[in-house]
Amino acid sequence: MKQTSLQTGFTLIETLVAVLILTMSIGSLLSLAAGGFYSVRYARNQIVANNLLQESLEYVRNSRDSAFINGLTWTQWQDTLQTDISGNQTGIDTDGCFSTDGCIVNPYTAVPEAKKCSGACPFVLYFPDNSFYGYSATYPFTPTTAPYQTSFVRKIVITMSPYSTDQVVVTSSISWLNGVNTRGVSQSMLITNWKP
Amino acid sequence: MNKLILQENKGLSAQTGFAMLFTVLIVSLILSITLSISNITFKQTILSSLAKDSQIAFYQADTAIECGMLYDTTLSFPVGTDPSSVVSPIFCGNDRFVIDTSQSSVDYLLFTQVVGAQTDPCSTILFDKKTNEIENEAIVQGLGYNTCTASARQVQRALQVTYSLAP
What we know:
- The complex is a heterodimer of chains A (196) and B (167).
- Chain A has helices at 2-6, 12-69, 74-80, and strands at residues 103-106, 113-116, 123-127, 132-134, 148-160, 167-178, 181-192.
- By secondary structure, chain A is α+β, with helices and mostly antiparallel strands.
- Chain A has one domain.
- A five-stranded antiparallel sheet of chain A has the order 4-3-5-6-7, covered by helices on one side. In chain A, strands 1-2 form a two-stranded antiparallel ribbon.
- The longest helix of chain A has 58 residues, at 12-69.
- The longest helix of chain B has 57 residues, at 17-73.
- The model of chain B has no long low-confidence stretch (mean pLDDT 85).
- In chain B, strands 1-2-3-4-5-6 form a six-stranded antiparallel sheet.
- Chain B is built from three helices and six strands.
- In chain B, 46% of the residues lie in helices and 23% in strands.
- Chain B is of the alpha+beta class and 167 residues long.
- Chain B has helices spanning 2-13, 17-73, 129-135, and strands at 90-92, 95-99, 108-113, 122-128, 137-145, 156-164.
């Protein structure tokens, strides 16, 4: 009888401990997998955000270079970015991209344009048939499917250098939602009136 | 019967060392796998941050080159400028650059950015006045760094502009 009792199976406590260890192991693995999925989405969004950021900085640089080629002065170039929410030049030095609200730029319209943000800047749209990110107003392509609204918001702010009227600092900021968390990237660039 | 059980128990207890051996083996195996994965993850993290650091360094170099061209085309530093009497600091956007007299000469003028902390991104501007003198060309070089401190994480990006001087 004593011999039989030595060969009995697991006790209830042993089983509970085993189940607990198993649950913890599986739980941590699932948590790791969920974290992985989150990171993958974050990485994908970060790539898109960085490209949107570079596009906007390149847009501003291109507008300066185009202005120089077309014979505009430094001040006349600044005027092209001092616009209202419809993209019309206002002649106000603290308007458009030079305002604290910032502006959006859209290189994909027939005539590239910069529009002042009214408070918060609008969401960037995704055009699936061309795989382009942009804004819808006067989109030059004819999307066969409706553009999708993304959670990306792009804001360009230009500030005058405190030391020189021949220098402006262009700052582009992108923010987006990753799950429930707001993420963002930002980059500044100096533009100068180097043309002698 | 009692004797028999006792003998069997003794026999079993003599073999429990195997359980310890297996435990050590399995733990070692899991530990080595974990360390390998951690090592790969660490390297991947460094690689993935390279793109971000590179972008920061590139725009630092770009800012340096824009500023350098502004000062060069407005003839702030004509050929033969003595580093000890050069206009310093110069201002680029919101930042200050001072001449590095130890690395400058009549031929090369090197300006370094003044930063709040050494871990901040920074840049340097080099005005090549020797080439300017010989080939009637102006060369401005901008070097950008994601962090001023020299470390394994430091990324450098360089831009150089060469242009003919106005006759």
